[in-house]
Design brief:
This protein is an alpha/beta fold. Helices cover 57% and strands 8% of the residues. The chain has 16 helices and six strands. A hairpin with a 6-residue loop joins strand 2 and strand 3. Helix 1 packs parallel to helix 9 and helix 11 packs parallel to helix 16. The longest helix has 41 residues. The chain is elongated. The two termini are 28 Å apart.
Length: 387
């Protein structure tokens, strides 16, 4: 399915955006990657086995040990859910897997969903992980593992011990602590890896069963957005290769000692180039209407997603000139170019160089801006967060 999706996206991203339901017909073929993370020793590997309905000593189970067992990123297929892969990640904050580089080293971007495991109340590194997951737009569960040990310790130290009260207090404390860190509605599960039929394990399975399809759907949309970004990058690369020719033509125009000619030529070329960028990135009105018809997202919603004035209507010389005067050093170069062209001998070469620089910088800036707008519009069409 990935190859067909990629091929269609490369041919026609707008048409591909309208084929979401067709791709969802292959929902079982969509691979969902779940990262099991947290600090070392919290029972991550045992959770992987318990969640897969296996005991630690079963054939095919993840290897569990007293010391830090998981030193590499290991994958385990779920026997019940098609193409759901659990990834047992090394513990954060060890000598090899330092907290500062953990997210990069483990490749967080490739996972679609996370389970953050702690055997106590959630601590600094757990909060760091959760915030990093939020930052990349993914979802997660919090799991308080070894709840059987928590109950046992409480029973030994409290003569008025009540299991239900202890569980309720533990849950409330976890949720309140997470809310204080900015997580509005954290999903917290209290469980024991050695009692997969008890505590919150049944609720965890029930939640996950209900959410597998939406998670795979979200994964599909993220995959489409990622492939679209590749398409945008390729188009951007092609456009960028032509900027030097516009710069050269601009420099040639600066060599003609006619007042105002160079600026007029520069503005005309920039208008032509930027208009091509708008069309090439499917930001023109015709493309936006087609995308709206393809996805069912109103045209005005797509149009209002575009913040750059370059994508909001016809590109004119007045618009380009106004934007150039707002580009700081570029506006200074523009003014300097016009004044230096009439300096004897050295004036023309200096003006030509300045003209090249102005055009080159401006087109690179406008190209980058429009490429970002194109991705925002496409994500909006797919219903993804564009913040």
């Amino acid at each position: 399915m990935d190859q067909q999706l990629r091929a269609q996206m490369n041919r026609d991203p707008i048409a591909a955006a309208g084929m979401i339901n067709q791709y969802l017909a292959w929902i079982d073929d969509i691979q969902l990657n779940i990262g099991i993370t947290g600090k070392s020793g919290t029972g991550k590997t045992s959770f992987v086995n318990a969640f897969r309905g296996m005991k630690n000593n079963d054939q095919g189970a993840a290897l569990v040990g007293v010391n830090e067992t998981t030193k590499t990123v290991n994958s385990y297929p779920h026997p019940k859910y098609a193409n759901v892969i659990l990834w047992d990640l090394p513990g954060i904050g060890t000598n090899k897997w330092k907290a500062e580089t953990y997210v990069k080293d483990t490749g967080f971007e490739k996972f679609d969903f996370f389970v953050i495991i702690s055997d106590t109340h959630f601590q600094e590194n757990d909060i760091k992980l959760a915030k990093e997951i939020q930052k990349i737009g993914k979802r997660f569960y919090f799991v308080h593992s070894k709840i059987d040990q928590t109950l046992k310790n409480e029973e030994e130290n409290d003569r008025n011990f009540n299991a239900e009260r202890t569980l309720a207090l533990t849950r409330r404390r976890c949720i309140r602590g997470l809310q204080e860190q900015g997580f509005e509605q954290p999903q917290v599960f209290l469980l024991s890896n050695f009692e997969p039929w008890h505590h919150d394990f049944p609720k965890l399975h029930e939640n996950f069963t209900r959410e597998v399809y939406p998670l795979k759907e979200y994964h599909l949309l993220c995959t489409m957005a990622a492939i679209h970004q590749e398409v945008i990058n390729e188009r951007k690369k092609a456009f960028k290769s032509g900027i030097k020719y516009y710069g050269a033509a601009s420099a040639f125009g600066a060599a003609v000692p006619i007042p105002g000619l160079s600026v007029a030529l520069d503005l005309g070329m920039i208008v032509k180039a930027v208009t091509g960028y708008v069309t090439g990135f499917d930001l023109d009105a015709a493309s936006l209407h087609r995308l709206a018809n393809s996805t069912g997202v109103p045209y005005d919603d797509l149009r209002f997603t575009i913040q750059s004035v370059l994508g909001q209507g016809e590109i004119t010389k007045d618009i380009i000139l106004k934007l150039l005067t707002q580009l700081g050093s570029t506006s200074v170069l523009l003014a300097t170019e016009e004044s230096t062209r009439f300096i004897p001998v050295l004036g023309i070469p200096i003006a030509a160089g300045l003209s090249f620089t102005v055009t080159y910088r401006a087109l690179n800036f406008f190209l980058d801006e429009l490429a970002k707008e194109a991705q925002k519009v496409y994500k909006r069409a797919l219903g993804l967060n564009i913040a």
